[in-house]
Amino acid sequence: MNNSVRIKVLDLIDSGYWKSVQWKEWADAVILKFDEPPYWVIELSIVKNSGEAISILRESLAEVHYKDDINHKSIILGYMFLRYKEKEINLKEFLTLAWQETEAEEDVGSPSNSDIFEMYEACNNSSGADEKFESIVDRVCKNFSYNAECAAKALLEVNGYK
Predict the structure, then answer these.
(1) SS3 string of 68-137?
(2) Which domain of life is it from (predicted)?
(3) Which of 118, 117, 113, 137 is nearest to 127 (CA)?
């Protein structure tokens, strides 16, 4: 199993898109599929929370000195956006998470931190049922569609291993 899958699993968990049930089901399926599954997959199948899962994945990636040129921030933002689209979180929660994710560094191809904050402020100043709110939703969907596409492609690759 290549390191690209490992880091994509990290993105899924780090974004909150995968909960423990999902990563454990995935890990269990991978364990059953391979005669000698990677040790990190075995560990992932038994961890109790996302913090432990993230630590295991980061440590295993550090051991192999893995670096890539994939834009993980775009993928993580995409998973966060999918959580909104799937109604796991509301628009304000999504924009808060997206703003926090882009606060440290901005990402080419993703909305800027200031754009996200502007959308968040507009959302806060809207009643949630008016025309202004609908325009905010349209703007968010337009701005994060690229991220959602990146995330969906990454998820397909990860699911191809089980």
Answers:
(1) CCCCHHHHHHHHHHHHHHCCCCCHHHHHHHHHHHHHCCCCCCCCCHHHHHHHHHHHHCCCCCCHHHHHHH
(2) Bacteria
(3) 137
pLDDT-flagged residues of the chain (< 50): none
* 49-84 tens-digit pLDDT: 999 999 999 998 887 766 666 678 889 999 999 999
Among 147, 132, 4, 125, CA closest to 81: 147
Compute and round to an integer the Cα radius of gyration of the chain.
Answer: 17
Q: Where are the domains of the chain?
A: 3-69, 72-153
pTM of the model: 0.84
Specify the pLDDT at position 3: 83
**DSSP type of residue 58:** H
HSE at residue 85, side-chain half, CA atoms within 13 A, is 18
Residue 122: CA count within 13 A, CB half-sphere: 18
- 15 by Cβ neighbours in 10 Å (0-12 / 13-18 / 19+) ranks as buried
Residue type, 101: E
